[in-house]
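S.,

Sequence below, as promised.
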Amino acid sequence: MQGVGGALLAEAVGTPFQPDALTRAFARIEAMEREFVRRPAEIERDDDRHLPQAVRDFARGDWQWIGPGIHRRMLALPDDSAARVFLLKARPGTKMPDHTHTGVEFTLVLSGAFAHDLGRFGPGDFEEADESVEHQPIVEAGEVCICLVAMDGTLKLNGMIGRLLQPFVGV
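The prediction came back faster than expected:
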């Protein structure tokens, strides 16, 4: 017995695909990816037209030093949310502090790559971490790693040095 949906599909008149439909679909996907994931040299310049449109829509502060080889650029959110959104830039070979989180952290890699015990993350990759994740990302050699980060808690640096640095890092 055929259901109503099946009967409608059986009677539907289809439209044949154009011969170049798949090629056009892939071209549109690649164009969207180029808009979102940029080369590090483009993002590092203060010429903000090279940032993804979603980032350009928000007011941005200047790059701030937060540790050896690590800089942060805050994005202004439209409300009084406890969440913070920022660009994080780290030079190749930088070993981030060993840490966990007091809330949720979402990281989208725009350029470069980093790795830790849970995997490797390159351009377009997305990582979610919370208080159950303890990691120490290391930026891969070759190019600057720039990420878009959103978090609703803070980092909790591990180890004695981490605890000493915590008040100064401000993340």
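The first strand starts at residue 64 and ends at 67.

Coffee later?
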